[in-house]
Amino acid sequence: MSRQTTIMNDDSRARAESYRYELSDEVVDIAARNAGNASPNTLAEVSAKVAPPPIPDYLQDTYWWAYLHPKSFYFFEREWVVNLILWGNMKKLTQAVLDEMDLQPNSRLLQVACVYGDFSNKLASHLGQTQSRLDLVDVAPIQLSNAEKKLSGQDNVSFHHQDSSLLTFPDASFDETVVFFLLHEQPEDVRRKTVAEAIRVTKAGGRIIFVDYHGPRKSNPMRYVMKPILATLEPFAMDLWREELPAYMPESIKAEQIRSEFYFGGLYQKVVVSL
After folding, report:
1. Helix or strand or coil: residue 109?
2. What is the rounded CA–CA span in Å between residue 230 and residue 224?
3. Against a cut of 0.85, is the pTM above it?
4. Three-state DSSP class for 10?
5. Domain ranges of the chain
6. Cβ neighbours of residue 225 closer than 8 Å, sequence gap 6 or more
């Protein structure tokens, strides 16, 4: 899920620190529709068609308050909040993704994980110009439910309840794939699998676009602001400060296939893999 985070009020954390994610009836309905284009009334009927992926421990334990709690949407689902979290760079980073797209008509693009704000709407509108489609996956049904509401004005979007580290799509299913601020939220082993899966489901001749955090230059004052924030709230994000993102790619990807660009003094990165 796209995923950007911010500091949580200590009182809020104290009230809900034992919160455990559960499926609401509304979330079950969307999972059912996307699993088999049916609308069974119970989770058991959904599971009979396709076993839904479980909520990963790292997501439940570390990010429940940002992505799994029903009240998280009241705060995070606002473009200005997302832009604030990214220090005013949301528009620039979104445009950086759109600028990479050179799709033929009737193409398919995969977005791995939901993103708060207007990112997916802008992506779908851009794809609509070439009669192309957006396929959106997330491991949390509550995120898919929110995304379906948010994208209700788009007629070229499909939703899929899948785990980014174990996608069920066949090889070479998509013309391009986008992974926007997801990798910094995953442990190293899951991150490697997510990268490998994004590459696997993308067609030869296509591209995978990663946007995420990066270790900023020492001369960038944001380095000293963000380091304690990420170290406290994003326990896996510092991996992307210590290692370049291409270090998490399969050995089959060669250096000449990778292009990197950096933003905001190196705090953010865009890495494009050409297949």
Report:
1. strand
2. 10
3. no
4. helix
5. 79-274
6. none
**DSSP H or E stretch at residue 210:** strand 202-213
Neighbours of 25 (CB within 10 A): 9
The torsion angles phi and psi of 18, rounded to 5 degrees, stand at -100, 10
Query: Could you tell me the two tokens for 182?
Result: 């997801």
Please state the length of the chain.
275
64-94 per-position pLDDT tens digit: 999 999 999 999 999 999 999 999 999 999 9
pLDDT tens per residue across span 170-211:
999 999 999 999 999 999 999 999 999 999 999 999 999 999
> Which segments of the chain does DSSP mark as H helices, in order?
10-16, 25-36, 43-49, 57-62, 72-76, 79-85, 90-98, 119-128, 141-150, 188-200, 222-233, 239-242
Distance of CA 131 to the CA centre of its chain: 23
CB atoms within 10 A of CB 21: 17
- Helix (H) / strand (E) element for 204: namely strand 202-213
What's the burial of 63, exposed, middle or buried (CB within 10 Å: 0-12/13-18/19+)? buried
Q: N- to C-terminal Cα distance for the chain? A: 24
Sign of the Cα torsion 229, 96, 158, 273 reads: negative
CA atoms in the 13 A half-sphere facing the CB of 159: 29
CATH number corresponding to 79-274: 3.40.50.150
